[in-house]
Specification:
The protein has 196 residues and is α/β, with parallel strands linked by helices. Helices cover 29% and strands 33% of the residues. The protein has 6 helices and 12 strands. α1 crosses α6. The structure holds glutamine.
């Protein structure tokens, strides 16, 4: 299988490494292509949207034509994993902060996202959480993390912290508020490979 990692900005190398570990653990032959420009998404069996800075990512993805390609791919059932800023991009709607900076989201997932829901960079934290279908006690790293605050009927909630949803799935779209690529535990990436 060929997985495209959007490589404009953010935790690209970390996702590549986690995917390679997960390929080995699942006994799957997989390859990865880094995507910075249009023309590559349609050849991929799945797409990873890393965390980083969603305003930068959104602007460049629309400018480069990648945003439209991802929307088309998801429409034809190609699995997508979005982490942290990647979750922000996948959402149909954002909070006031998204409107204020006129952020253009991909609008793929039927959720409302709140950026920086847990506070500023200084408020970053790690917490052990149980993720439905993935496993219990996952070491989840939250860095200026967003959260899902509303969701439609087609969205399965996989993990929450209080009122905030921090992991959710809608069909072939998997979105996480935290960074599974920053820990040695590859269960999330293995789960994604199983989805593909
Ligand atoms: N707060 C960032 C944003 O909204 C996301 C941070 C991250 O991906 N670690 O773009």
């Amino acid at each position: 299988m060929l997985i495209g990692v959007i490589a404009i900005q953010g935790n690209v190398a970390e996702h590549v490494y986690a995917l390679e570990c997960a390929f080995a653990e699942r006994g799957v032959h997989g390859e990865i292509v880094l995507i910075k420009h249009e023309g590559l998404v349609s050849g991929c069996d799945a797409i990873v949207l890393p965390g980083g800075e969603s305003t930068t990512l959104a602007r460049l993805m629309w400018e480069e034509g990648i945003a439209v390609e991802i929307k088309d791919a998801v429409g034809s059932g190609v699995p997508v994993l979005g982490t942290c800023a990647g979750l922000v991009l996948l959402a149909k709607r954002g909070d006031g902060e998204v409107a204020r900076v006129k952020q253009r989201l991909l609008g793929i997932m039927d959720v409302v996202v709140k950026r920086n829901a847990f506070g500023r960079q200084y408020d970053s934290f790690e917490m052990s959480i149980d993720i439905l279908g993935v496993g219990d006690g996952f070491p989840a790293v939250f860095i200026r993390a967003p959260a899902i605050v509303q969701w439609g009927d087609g969205v399965d909630v996989l993990a929450r912290i209080g009122d905030y949803v921090v992991a959710a799935q809608q069909g072939s779209v998997l979105a996480l508020a935290f960074h599974p690529e920053m820990v040695p535990d590859t269960r999330v990436h293995q789960y994604f490979i199983d989805m593909i």
